Amino acid sequence: MNRWVLGMLVIAVLAFGTVIGFNLFVNKKIETTLANLPEPVYPVTVEKLTPTVWPQSIKAIGFIEPNQGVSVSNEVAGIVTAINFENGANVESGTVLVSLDSSVQKAQLKAQQVQLPSVRDDYNRLRKLYQERSVSEQSVEAAQSKYEAMQANIESLQATINQREIKAPFSGVLGIRNINLGQFVSAGTDIVRLDDLSLMRTRFSVPQAEIGKLSVGQEISLTVETFPGREYKGKINAIQPVVSNQTGLVMVQAELPNDDKTLRGGMFAAVNVALSDLDNQVVVPQTAIVFALYGNSVFVTEQKDDETRVRQVTVEVLQRDGNFALVKGDLKFDEQVVTTGILNLGNNTKVNIVDNPISAPDTMPQL
């Protein structure tokens, strides 16, 4: 019995020893194989750093409004007797757009005008008689009061008649009328929109930190979605003297000519205020930047022992414009930064510079 137990123990030890030995042998072979593998080489494209002029600007979204714009309305109520304009027409300042019924007021005016010469003659006759001491001063004053009151009534009636002729307050383009012939309109009815499109204004807001970069007379440019690719130019004509305590923004207004009347009130515009350019700046494609929470960086190529390797350099992204970024860091002109193929790179990674952009960032390394 003891011999049987001893035999089983010997078999178990031999079995476990064989398994352990085999595992040690396999691990050793794996370590040897990995140690003898060639170092991976990743394909990348590069771009040489050269001194670049970086254009500075302030960008904002603006709201376009006409030089003058108003909804033409009436001061007094009445019936529309004449509409003297077409929808969308160009009119001059003072043009009579709409006439309201003023027949009653014209009749009253005619009656007053007919009586005026007689009242005036009475007043003049009494003045002469007073100079001859034939009438009292009270009679002369009563005649004068009657004469001046009638003159005032005539002027009042004339003003009322004029109010019933709605005129264009300035030259501009009319919109679509909101009234019809024969319609009774109450005071303040919106008759038609009138806009002066010869000169347009745009209002936009900028952060208070940018106030020092702006001044009256400074040039601006803007684009609108209606006419893509077309740039309109103007100048700043006013800057709000206070900063909004709710948003920290400052309102700026600019004027721009609109000779062809393509700009219309209510449009939104992408406004660009050009500032002084920065010379000799380090500019890299945004594809060259590794954006990370702990800091942004780029990879710079270096030649070591006839091999091309990369060095990771921390940079600060100052501004962005389209596909490029203005950066600051330990970079020198004429160095080459990696523009594509950066996902698999690390410090001292071996790379192979190719001419064509890397189509797939996760391309398998070349062994």
TrEMBL record:
Residues 140-167 form a coiled coil. Keywords: Coiled coil. GO terms for biological process: xenobiotic detoxification by transmembrane export across the plasma membrane. GO terms for molecular function: efflux transmembrane transporter activity. InterPro entries: Beta-barrel_RND_2, BSH_CzcB-like, MacA_alpha-hairpin_sf, MdtA-like_C, RND_pump_MFP. Residues 70-195 form the CzcB-like barrel-sandwich hybrid domain. PANTHER family: BLL4320 PROTEIN (PTHR30469:SF11), MULTIDRUG RESISTANCE PROTEIN MDTA (PTHR30469). NCBIfam families: RND_mfp. This is Multidrug resistance protein MdtA. The lineage of its organism: Bacteria, Pseudomonadati, Pseudomonadota, Gammaproteobacteria, Vibrionales.
